[in-house]
Amino acid sequence: MADPDLALSAYLQLAAISHARGQWLPRNKFLILAGAAACAAGLLGVAERCRELVRAHSPNHMVSKYESFPAALKSAEFQTYHTQLRKFCSIERAEHLLLGQGYQLEPATETSANQCLREMDVSAL
User: Fold this and answer.
1) 125 occurs within a structural domain
2) Domain coverage including residue 10
3) Per-residue H/E/C for the chain
4) How far, rounded to the nearest angstrom, does the alpha carbon of residue 67 sit from its chain's CA centroid?
5) pTM score above 0.85
6) What is the pLDDT of residues 52-77, one digit of tens each?
7) Does residue 96 belong to any structural domain of this protein?
8) From CA 3, how far away is CA 12, in angstroms rounded?
9) Neighbours of 91 (CB within 10 A)
10) Is residue 26 part of a domain?
């Protein structure tokens, strides 16, 4: 498995690119992948912020059924969805997409992740 900090960085960057283009469905998929990576990295606050951003734009999204991101990850139904998302964009594919667009991939920190998420806040639209 890839380093969760690198996965978090890659998925957040792809979410930000999708957000800037107004592509909400891919943005939400990348936010879910970023949230799972944040949980794996022990950044539960970042994971919750990913969840909140998805819910703000899509209140009926599957992630809304759970009280937290870690609770969602414990659900078999959500695990199936998460597996499908990893097939949609593996960490290797995410890295390839970013490098092809000239992005530099560095491990995410809590500070850098929160900054990226603040820039995607839909209430600012």
Assistant:
1) no
2) 4-120
3) CCCHHHHHHHHHHHHHHHHHCCCHHHHHHHHHHHHHHHHHCCCHHHHHHHHHHHHHHCCCCHHHHCCCHHHHHCCHHHHHHHHHHHHHCCHHHHHHHHHHCCCCCCCCCHHHHHHHHHHCCHHHC
4) 17
5) yes
6) 999 998 999 999 999 999 999 999 99
7) yes
8) 14
9) 19
10) yes
